[in-house]
Write a structure and sequence with these properties.
Distance between the termini: 112 Å
Largest sheet: 19 strands, parallel
Number of strands: 51
């Protein structure tokens, strides 16, 4: 049982192995549609079966490895609008063929072809070549077989292709070229209609074997099958050299003014003709071996002008006398000597008595040398002169002068009627002495130009000539100004000087002079605030208020200063509050009353004293501001900045005194319950902070002053301002002292 199981396992293994290795050996890959990125067809995935036409799009490259086989289903093909790099090697050719079984390579024309072929489209990457026509880059098909297609390879004008070392066989057309492809080292064999067809392009065709193509051409008369040949030029040009063109139905055919250069090829044994002309322009086909050294035999294989005068000629002499070996020992025919000529007309007889003509054609065809008659003697008749070039006229003598001829036209002419003498005037020629001039105006004007008027003096002619008037340049001297018209005097500045400007000056166009543009004046410094004088406060009235009278002592123009307060709160003393029946009780109940009345008296006294102190501080600040302004007026660089600071100090001082008065006027009773006037205290502190910043700026401005006295004066005034601010701050701090029952609550709501 164990032995049977082992034999069964071996059979199963061999069976699976057969299918596995058979599948690996005959793997194939189906391809179709567009190639949109760089793609490689490898031997591992070969053969490739093209089930629908492949298009290599712009920006994509198809690389085909050596040994790959590509089989095309019927009516499919390969279109390259990007790049193809199909390079096999001599032992591993790439094969482009049909997928049909048992294709027939022996066909008649027309034939139902198996697949479309390889077509290079308009946007494909062009192949580039060296000056020696060697491949550098771009599209290339090399070491490949291309077979059984309608058109094996086709390019266009703007996309040349390198076609090198390929076998191109059994197609209807082997190669169809519209461009500048290089077709080299190929075997082009057994293609039905054309081995190579050129459609207006200019390819380079060299070192190819072009054999057994267009075999059906020999079955038709020369012009029944248009152009059918191993190599057919339908327009275009290019170069064809070092090729073997042999055993074809027809060798070359030309139409539509083709103009290739065909040389150093072996062209023979082509059944119908070696050359068939179907155009009226000539073809240069020299240095080729044409199957014979006998010219008459060669001519039998050519249809051209000599068979139909409507056709061009095949210019094939000199030709190789034997098949070309390209070994340096090849020999060529010598052209025959010309025996007859067709000439142009005789030229005009020259002055040497000779006239000439040129040869327009000669025979026999391709001949050289001979003795054409190109010159003959003639009688020269010089033409009559019609124009002359003369020397200058001679000096006038006895009212006559003469001249001579220096040249005449036409060349070698004779006769005519030249003018060689004339009447003249013996009056002497004009010189500088015959002219005098005056200038207008006589003095050079501001325009720098004068008119010079010329007058001829005496009798003269010709010679030096002056026009009646001419404009000349002169050196204008600008006058000095002597009279001036001025603007009004300007304001008196801090230096005690006022100025004005010149509106006009005379004489017209003048410069310089000594205009009076400044004078001394009495400078009055500008003000920045009003001044007030206030009387003492009145006694506290029954309505708990007291008043005073303030008079404006100076009204500063264009400035609005807040006036001092003239009414404030006070507490009235109540002396009758002790008159009650129970003195003991009243004394206890009214015990605070004397304290309160005493506090009112103290407050009234403080208010009166505080008002006097405030007025004194106002006066000191105003005086300091005026001193600061006087210093600023001397230096225009700091003037505007100092004015702004001074004006702010004056305004802030008034606001601070007002806030301090309101703080100090609050009674002790009110302070005990609600605390001091925190709102006014906060306002005053903000103003004090602003003053400190501006006083700091004044300290910086002081350092910009060049004058030491001005620096000292500004320092003193800054100290006065600082002292005033410190006094107010001390008073505010004093007013916040003492116990308050609910003041802490009110302070929370004050910002």
């Amino acid at each position: 049982m164990k032995k049977q199981f082992t034999i069964f396992s071996i059979i199963i293994f061999l069976t699976l192995g057969y299918f596995f290795f058979a599948g690996s050996a005959y793997a194939e890959t189906s391809v179709s549609g567009n190639i949109t990125s760089d793609t490689t067809w490898s031997v591992a995935n070969s053969p490739y079966i093209v089930t629908a036409t492949i298009q290599v799009l712009q920006g994509s490259k198809l690389t085909i490895e050596p040994g790959v086989v590509i089989k095309f289903n019927k009516s499919t093909g390969l279109i390259i609008d990007g790049e193809i790099y199909a390079v096999g090697d001599i032992n591993n050719l790439i094969t482009f063929t049909t997928n049909e079984p048992n294709p027939n390579k022996f066909y008649k024309v027309p034939q139902d072809w198996y697949w479309g072929g390889i077509h290079i489209a308009k946007n494909a990457i062009s192949a580039t070549f060296s000056t020696a026509n060697n491949y550098l880059s771009g599209n290339i098909i090399k070491y490949s077989i291309i077979e059984y297609a309608g058109i094996g390879l086709s390019d266009i004008e703007n996309s040349p292709l390198s076609i090198d070392n390929n076998i191109i066989r059994y197609n209807n057309w082997g190669i169809n070229s519209y461009g500048k492809s290089v077709i080299s080292n190929n075997v082009i064999d057994g293609n039905a209609s054309y081995g190579i067809k050129i459609n207006g392009g200019s390819p380079i065709i060299h070192h190819n074997q072009i054999i057994n193509n267009s075999v059906e051409a020999s079955s038709y008369p020369d012009f029944d099958v248009w152009g059918m040949a191993a190599v057919y030029f339908s327009g275009g040009g290019g170069q064809v050299y070092n090729n073997l063109v042999k055993d074809n139905g027809r060798g070359f055919s030309f139409s539509f003014s083709s103009s290739p250069e065909i040389k150093y090829n072996n062209i023979y044994n082509n059944q119908s003709r070696n050359f068939l002309m179907q155009q009226n322009t000539d073809i240069q086909a020299k240095y080729n071996y044409l199957g014979s050294a006998d010219k008459s035999t060669i001519n039998l294989q050519i249809v051209d002008y000599y068979d139909n005068v409507g056709l061009g000629k095949i210019i094939y002499e000199p030709y190789a006398l034997s098949e070309l070996k390209f070994d340096g020992a090849d020999t060529f025919s010598q052209p025959s000597t010309c025996t007859s000529w067709v000439y142009s007309g005789w030229s005009t007889c020259q002055s040497n008595g000779i006239q000439t003509r040129t040869v327009t054609s000669s025979s026999p065809s391709g001949c050289v040398g001979g003795n054409p008659v190109l010159t003959q003697s003639c009688t020269y008749i010089p033409p009559t002169c019609t124009s002359w070039t003369y020397s200058d006229w001679s000096t006038c003598v006895n009212n006559q002068q003469t001249r001579t001829i220096t040249s005449s036209q036409p060349a070698n002419c004779a006769g005519g009627n030249p003018l060689l003498n004339q009447s003249c005037n013996s009056t002497p020629l004009c010189t500088e002495n015959n002219w005098t001039s005056i200038l207008s105006p006589t003095i050079c004007p501001s325009s720098g130009q004068q008119t010079k008027k010329w007058t001829k003096v005496g009798e003269c002619r010709g010679g030096i000539f002056r026009s009646s008037e001419e404009t000349v340049s002169c050196d204008y001297q600008v006058p000095t100004c002597t009279n001036f018209t001025y603007s009004d005097w300007g304001a008196c500045n801090s230096s005690g000087v006022q100025s004005r400007t010149t509106l006009s000056a005379s004489p017209s166009g003048c410069t310089g002079g000594n205009p009076v543009l400044s004078k001394s004046c009495n400078y009055v410094p500008p003000c920045i605030s009003d001044s007030w004088s206030c009387g003492d406060w009145s006694n506290c009235l029954a309505n708990n208020s007291q008043t005073r009278t303030c008079t404006k002592t100076f009204d500063c123009p264009n400035v609005q200063t807040e006036s001092p307060i003239t009414n404030q709160h006070c507490e009235v003393s109540n002396q009758n509050s002790q008159n009650v029946k129970e003195p003991q009780v009243n004394q206890i109940q009214n015990e605070p009353t004397p304290i309160k009345n005493n506090e009112q008296a103290v407050n009234q006294e403080k208010n009166t004293t505080g008002s006097q102190v405030a007025e004194q501080r106002r006066s000191e600040v105003a005086s300091a501001v005026q001193e600061i302004l006087q210093v600023a007026e001397k230096d225009s660089g700091i003037g505007q900045q100092v004015k702004i600071i001074a004006q702010t100090q004056t305004q802030n001082q008034e606001k601070l005194e007002t806030s301090l008065q309101k703080v100090q006027s609050r009674s002790g009773f009110a302070k005990f319950f609600v605390g001091p006037n925190y709102g006014e205290i906060n306002n005053a502190k903000k103003l004090l902070e602003q003053n400190r910043e501006q006083i700091k700026q004044l300290g910086q401005i002081k350092n910009q002053l060049a004058n030491q006295d001005d620096q000292q004066k500004l320092t003193e005034q800054v100290q006065l301002l600082e002292q005033s601010n410190q006094e107010i701050e001390n008073s505010l701090n004093t007013s916040q002292r003492g116990f308050s029952l609910f003041g802490w609550i009110f302070r929370l709501f004050v910002k």
